What we know:
By secondary structure, the chain is mainly alpha-helical. The chain has a domain of 82 residues. Helices cover 58% and strands 6% of the residues. It is built from five helices and two strands, in the order H-H-E-E-H-H-H. The protein has a two-stranded antiparallel sheet. Helix 2 crosses helix 4, helix 2 runs antiparallel to helix 5 and helix 4 crosses helix 5. The longest helix has 23 residues. The model has no long low-confidence stretch (mean pLDDT 80).
Amino acid sequence: xxxxxxxxxxxxxxxxxxxxxxxxxxxxxxxxxxxxxxxxxxxxxxxxxxxxxxxxxxxxxxxxxxxxxxxxxxxxxxxxxxxxxxxxxxxxxxxxxxxxxxxxxxxxxxxxxxxxxxxxxxxxxxxxxxxx
Length: 132
């Protein structure tokens, strides 16, 4: 390499080669993408998914001709020990969130604050890897 090339540019080109082989290594780019999705799924299972989905029921009362409705949704909270978080049901839900964030748009799932940031990072990083 030329000695005049900035170190930051050489680092960027090295990372690009490592991730995709300059677009000539499809399996390398696909493998990195699948690894990133796997990491996203594991992070969502461990830190991003809430324990309870929002309650879809909307109870109401009728007073004459006036109806009062109140929808309740629990705050996004994560409780429980690590083995309780690593279940197949949570893996399926986390996979749907991760794939939606790569291919489509925001999943609309009830996520914790960490989960929101994990999803935002995956929405930025993983489509970039898909483009490589």
